């Protein structure tokens, strides 16, 4: 079944830890995106990719980094997590334009 | 600059009544317009989009939206609200000819009262 997956769904970690949020899609989409969203609030684009080996920073500055080595995989990494990184992270993908984006279920990150 | 405005943070509607969630946009040229819904602890789900053609667009779960070029609006509507429609709704726009960076509105929380 074509879908977009994010793991973990919930993560609670201590300050200073390195974390990677996983995002995978089985739809063969070229374009993938990461958004940061505080609960019930607006979305902020933090990274996007238009294909393998292509990554760009989004509108909201973020200390995270991303990679796109395979079409279906777009992980996000925080080298040293801080409480200010506490938020929900949503991954999305799309194909062509102006097609809609498909969203994963999100990862809710809490940094203590 | 490209932008989307959702003027209401929250909309309350009694079950069975018609609902409207407002959205206005600002882009140069013709837009592509979208509505998404977000249920608690979930990602966004696509509801409907306007690309071209008929100004009234029908989408999932009985929702529809009307594109009004003169008023630069794309309001979301449903004739009869259900309690299960309670969620956070996002309007979004892409400027034609640009890449796929969608600009989202700030969201409107819809409460359907039983």
Briefly say what this structure is.
The complex is a heterodimer of chains A (112) and B (114). Chain A contains no helices and 11 strands. Chain A is mainly beta and 112 residues long.
Low-confidence stretches of chain B: none
Q: Helix segment count of chain A?
A: 0
- Topology as H/E string of chain B? EEEEEEEEEEEE
User: Helices and strands of chain A: which structural class?
Assistant: mainly beta
Number of E-type strands of chain A:
11
**Overall mean confidence score, pLDDT of chain A:** 92
**Strand percentage of chain B, roughly?**
over 45%
Distance between termini of chain B? 40 Å
Largest interface: A-B, 25 and 24 residues
Query: What would the principal axes of the Cα set say about the shape of chain B?
Result: globular
What's the story with the biggest beta sheet of chain A? 7 strands, mixed
Label the overall shape of chain A. globular
Count of helical regions of chain B: 0
**From the alpha-carbon coordinates, what is the Rg of chain B to the nearest angstrom?**
13 Å
Give me the CATH fold name of chain B.
Answer: Immunoglobulin-like
**Helix content percent band of chain B:** under 10%
Structure classification of chain B: mainly beta
Strand/helix succession of chain A: EEEEEEEEEEE
Note the gap between the termini of chain A. Answer: 36 Å
Number of domains of chain B: 1
Commentary on this structure:
The complex is a heterodimer of chains A (112) and B (114). Chain A has 112 residues and is an all-beta fold. Helices cover 0% and strands 49% of the residues of chain A. Chain A has a domain at 1-47 and 85-95. In chain A, the strands form 2 sheets. In chain A, strands 2, 4, 5, 6, 9, 10 and 11 form a 7-stranded mixed beta sheet that branches. A 4-stranded antiparallel beta sheet of chain A has the order 1-3-8-7, with no helix packed on it. Chain B is mainly beta and 114 residues long. Chain B is 0% helix and 53% strand. In chain B, the strands form 3 sheets. In chain B, strands 2, 5, 6, 10, 11 and 12 form a 6-stranded mixed beta sheet that branches. A 4-stranded antiparallel beta sheet of chain B has the order 3-9-8-7, with no helix packed on it. A two-stranded antiparallel ribbon of chain B has the order 1-4. The mean pLDDT of chain B is 92. The chains are: A mainly beta (112), B mainly beta (114). Chain A binds chain B through residues 4, 6, 31, 40-43, 45, 48, 50, 58, 90, 92, 94, 97-106, 108, and chain B through 32, 34, 36, 41-46, 49, 51, 88, 90, 94, 96, 99-102, 104-107, 109.
């Amino acid at each position: 079944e074509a879908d977009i997956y994010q793991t973990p769904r919930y993560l609670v970690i201590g300050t200073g830890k390195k974390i990677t949020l996983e995002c995978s899609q089985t739809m063969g989409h070229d374009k993938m995106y990461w958004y940061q969203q505080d609960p019930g609030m607006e979305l902020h684009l933090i990274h996007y990719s238009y294909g393998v080996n292509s990554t760009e920073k989004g509108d909201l500055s973020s200390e995270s980094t991303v990679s796109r080595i395979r079409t279906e995989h777009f992980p996000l990494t925080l080298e040293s997590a801080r409480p200010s990184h506490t938020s929900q992270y949503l991954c999305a993908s799309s194909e062509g334009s102006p097609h809609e984006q498909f969203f994963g279920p999100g990862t809710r990150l809490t940094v203590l | 600059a490209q932008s989307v405005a959702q003027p209401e943070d929250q909309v309350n509607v009694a079950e069975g009544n018609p609902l409207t969630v407002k959205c206005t946009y600002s882009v140069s040229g013709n837009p592509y317009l979208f509505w998404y819904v977000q249920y608690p602890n979930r990602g966004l789900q696509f509801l409907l989009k306007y690309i071209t053609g008929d100004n009234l667009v029908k989408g999932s779960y009985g929702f529809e939206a009307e594109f009004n070029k003169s008023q630069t609006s794309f309001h979301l509507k449903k004739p009869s609200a259900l309690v299960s429609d309670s969620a956070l709704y996002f309007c979004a726009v892409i400027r034609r000819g640009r890449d796929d960076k969608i600009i989202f509105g700030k969201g409107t929380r819809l409460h359907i009262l039983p």
